[in-house]
Amino acid sequence: MINVYLDDYRACPEGFRLAKNAEECKQLLEREDVNILSLDYDLGWGQPTGLEVARYIVETGHYPNTIYFHTSSPAGRAQMMNLLLQHAPSHIVIHNGPMLV
């Protein structure tokens, strides 16, 4: 199992694999068993956002065990969280904020 940190700007925490864009993150979710996923919303001007990753998770069922949101976008966090909370199986843990380290 791996942990994935989706962000185009911030440094990746120890113990995580960095996905710098939505496509890299979706590929990791498809190919690996993901324990923890930490999502950013804004991934660069004109680029797909973390919401696209959340939609991918819902559409494919490739849920990680635990999801955090480290984005600085309150609106983006709300969109991703609401989508995932509406569709995630009950055993998936979804936190309304970043990991506390």
CATH class identity: Alpha Beta
Helicity, as a percent range: 25-40%
**Which strand-content bin applies to the residues?**
15-25%
Strand order of the main beta sheet, please?
A: 2-1-3-4-5
Tell me the Rg in angstroms.
Answer: 12 Å
Number of helices: 3
Give the total of beta strands. 5
Largest sheet properties: 5 strands, parallel
Query: Which homologous superfamily in CATH is the superfamily?
Result: Response regulator
- Compressed to H and E, one letter per element, the order equals EEHEHEHE
Q: Using the coordinates shown, work out and report the CATH topology.
A: Rossmann fold
Poorly predicted runs are: none
Structural class of the secondary elements?
Answer: alpha/beta
Plain-language structure description:
With 101 residues, this protein is an alpha/beta fold. The chain has one domain (2-94): Response regulator (Rossmann fold), CATH 3.40.50.2300. Helices cover 35% and strands 20% of the residues. It has 3 helices and 5 strands. The chain has helices at residues 22-31, 50-60, 74-87; strands spanning 2-6, 17-19, 34-39, 66-69, 93-94. It has a 5-stranded parallel β-sheet with strand order 2-1-3-4-5. Strand 3 (34-39), helix 2 (50-60) and strand 4 (66-69) form a beta-alpha-beta unit. The radius of gyration is 12 Å and the shape is globular. It comes from Paenibacillus nasutitermitis. Pfam families: cREC_REC. This is Cyclic-phosphate processing Receiver domain-containing protein. Residues 2-84 form the Cyclic-phosphate processing Receiver domain.
